[in-house]
Amino acid sequence: MARLTSILDNDFYKFTMQYAVVKLFPKAKARYQFINRGKHQFPEGFAARFREAVDHMATLQLTKAEKHFFAKTCPYIDPTYFDFLQGYHYDPEEVQIIQEGGDLTVKIEGYWYRTILWEVPLMSLICELYYEMTGQKRVDDEEVMKIVHDKMYKYDKLNITIADFGTRRRHSLAVHDLVIKALKEHPSNTFIGTSNVHFAMKYHTKPIGTHAHEWFMFHAAKYGYKMANLVGLENWSNVYRGDLGIALSDTYTTEVFFKQFDKKLSKLFDGVRHDSGDPIEFAQMTIDHYLSKGINPLTKTIIFSDGLDYEKVVKIVEFAKDKIGFSFGIGTDFTNDVGLDRMNIVLKMTEAFPDEGEWTPVIKLSDEPKKHTGNPEEINMAIRFLNIHQHG
Q1: N or C: which terminus of the chain has fewer CB atoms within 10 Å of its end residue's CB?
Q2: What is the per-residue pLDDT across 136-163, written as a single tens digit (0 to 9) for each?
């Protein structure tokens, strides 16, 4: 039966954002919604089993050992935050689950500083329960680890660094554990860490991440689309003072992002993360941007993290080598390569209630138009307002 066993079984950027939200926006509220991109049909009784797993999350609590690990690993976060996290409990009443036939509706609502932690574990539970309840059989444990080692031998030859970003759409907790074990045991320095804080602790590796789209989506609700990236990054740098310096660029398209990524921010942040659209075009835009600001691109890093597999990584390396620094965050190609179809699901913030104001719809305008999320009218208005020219 799918169950979470640790409150740290979540992506690192959820905690780093939570800390910033507690500091800057403690009164803000948020709503999130599950989006079933792959049109998966959920088996009868799914909602009831999912509800049980969600209710069980209320029992999770930060242990003393986890608190010590987290505080030691992140000296740039105030000790008050770890005390807060030790007292934090998931509140299942914030999550609404409805099933009609094979369709599943999941909605989350509450204070943003609380609800921010739900997205990743809920998605991983949906995936694990889906495979469990549909009776799909994966390859055995030995094969899971062999697949990882075989991939890593190929990646080793490219002389690159790789992190695991696969929590949200993993096959299961057990498979994720095997994958990190294999990555950690692999005889090279290619693997540098994981976005999952629980596994970073368990396998003595580095938790990796900074912030996600919702950070900028909230800033758009509070400050408007034209200021969202700029104020979002200023606020981030005010909280972290130069740590956690990878900026996410595609919440309102990379084109708009670079208009707001001024010289100060370009120098202050260590680099950018690519999460949608053509990676080669993105790399070229990023290189051009740094050169236009008088910055040597080789002093900066792009973290590529959009649906990567070996073939995509090879193309990126061939293009970017000796032009700009780069690293890779690989998700489901590690944590859900077990001989079954992967799930195509997301869970996104849909509305935000800034400290003063009202419920405001929030959207994401990806570099891949098919990946836009939110109210279609709001999307069209933002595209016009930001003067975005997109094909596709």
Answers
A1: C
A2: 999 999 999 999 999 999 999 999 999 9
DSSP assignments along 124-162, one per residue:
HHHHHHHHHHTTPPPPPHHHHHHHHHHHHHHHHTTT--E
Backbone angles phi, psi at 194, to 5 degrees: -140, 150
Q: Do 18 and 74 meet the contact criterion of CB atoms below 8 Å apart?
A: no
Place of tokens 């509220």: 29
CA-to-CA distance for 270 and 55, rounded, in angstroms? 40
pLDDT digits (tens, 9 = 90+) for 18-57: 999 999 999 999 999 999 999 999 999 999 999 999 999 9
Q: What is the CA radius of gyration of the chain?
A: 20
Instruction: Give the integer Cα–Cα distance in Å for 52 and 201.
Output: 27
**The Cα angle at residue 132 between residues 128 and 136, in degrees rounded to 5:** 110
Report the alpha-carbon distance of residue 388 to residue 207 in Å, rounded: 35
Question: Please, are residues 251 and 285 in contact by the beta-carbon 8 Å criterion?
Answer: no
| Sole residue written with tokens 């609404």 | 96
Per-residue model confidence (pLDDT) at position 391: 59
pLDDT digits (tens, 9 = 90+) for 338-387: 999 999 999 999 999 998 889 999 999 999 888 899 999 999 999 999 99
Residue 75 to residue 17: CA distance in whole angstroms: 16
Q: For the chain, give the percent of residues with pLDDT over 70.
A: 99
Sheet holding 103-111, edge to edge: 95-100, 103-111, 29-35, 346-353, 360-361
Q: Which helix (H) or strand (E) holds 164?
A: strand 162-164
- pLDDT number for residue 223: 96
Amino acid of residue 323: K
What are the CA-CA distances from residue 67 to residues 3, 6, 21, 29, 82 (Å)?
21, 12, 19, 26, 6
| Residue 274 structure tokens | 């690519």
